[in-house]
Design a protein that fits this description.
CATH class of the largest domain: Alpha Beta
Strand content: 15-25%
Shape: elongated
Number of domains: 2
CATH superfamily of the largest domain: NAD(P)-binding Rossmann-like Domain
Number of strands: 12
CATH architecture of the largest domain: 3-Layer(aba) Sandwich
Bound molecules: nicotinamide-adenine-dinucleotide
Oligomer: single chain
């Protein structure tokens, strides 16, 4: 019997790191509401000023929480500067990280993959847990086979630490893969040479594909993205909006449940659907 099967009746011992943040609070509520999950540990740097009313302690130190609670899976919604060390710590404690925090570099992903494989554990890195966003990325990949011109606009609240968003980067990777398969890997090849009156006017440009990504940061936004495809006489716009952080929770709970049955690195929710 594998680890996943042995959990047919047992609840999955689940922890949350970053439990006092915007996403962490939603995850705590979602785990508590899911009959297959048991909330055994919560950690947050701001534990001393916690207003969460739980029947388990909230710990300021992830290491202390892992030692006490011994979770099988730990969801991380913290900060791009913290997430790599957190994920390493979770794996070392025999716990499977489910990472929602964005900003991990390809090198860090590779190191986490190696560590998870060596320990016979899984590490799930999911830049966007919303089903609609996953479908938007899939449709963008499909459209990229046929359109040579496209740009990405991602829009988030003004407290977001990293830019471009993890969703924009994974979308770009998928679109680039599709253009390569179409035999012409560069977007906007016939665009004229531009003069930028101000630096950054055209967003950031992906080195190999020339794909432009524009990042908008405004209070009032949650997480939104448009992928716009242009061709003579027509425009195709794909847009996804997360208006509420609840949009991410079914994906988070799904990832926690899948984490026990797999080994190595999973990148992106579409790998789990
Ligand atoms: N994958 C997705 O679907 C998705 C969706 C929304 C946001 N995000 C990402 O999730 C991350 C968190 O977003 P947020 O809006 O919840 O941030 P936030 O700033 O509201 O919350 C982060 C929390 O983590 C805590 N924290 C930071 N480092 C810690 C550490 N090492 N140990 C313990 N606690 C720590 C902070 O005290 C804070 O309470 C960001 O990277 C954001 O881009 C991902």
């Amino acid at each position: 019997m594998n680890a996943a099967e042995s959990h047919n009746t047992q609840k999955i011992r689940t922890a949350v790191c970053g439990a006092l943040g915007r996403m962490g609070r939603e995850v705590v509520a979602a785990v508590l509401a899911d009959p297959q999950l048991e909330l055994v540990g919560v950690a947050d740097f701001n534990a001393a000023s916690s207003d969460l009313h739980l029947n388990i302690p909230i710990e300021a130190s992830l290491a202390d929480m892992l030692t006490r609670a011994k979770p099988e899976v730990c969801v991380d919604f913290t900060h791009p500067s913290e997430v790599f060390a957190n994920a390493e710590m979770m794996l070392s404690a025999g716990c499977r990280p489910v990472i929602g925090t964005t900003g991990l570099t390809p090198e860090q992903l590779s190191l986490l993959e190696q560590k998870a494989e060596a320990l016979n554990l899984s590490v799930l890195v999911i830049p966007n847990f919303a089903l609609g966003a996953v479908l938007m990325m899939k449709f963008a990949e499909m459209a990229s086979q046929y359109f040579e011109h496209a740009e990405i606009i991602e829009l988030h609240h003004n407290q977001k630490a990293d830019a471009p968003s993890g969703t924009a980067l994974i979308t770009a990777e998928k679109m680039e893969k599709a253009r390569k398969m179409a035999g012409q890997p560069v977007f906007g090849l016939d665009n004229i040479q531009e003069t930028h009156v101000q630096a950054g006017a055209r967003g950031t440009v992906r080195e190999d594909s020339g794909l432009h990504i524009h990042s908008v940061r405004l209070p009032g936004l949650v997480a939104h993205q448009e992928v716009i495809f242009g061709a003579p006489g027509q425009l195709l716009t794909l847009r996804h909006d997360s208006f509420d952080r609840k949009s991410f929770m079914p994906g988070v709970c799904l990832a926690v449940k899948k984490a026990l049955g797999i080994k190595g690195l999973i990148y992106g929710l579409d790998s789990l659907l």
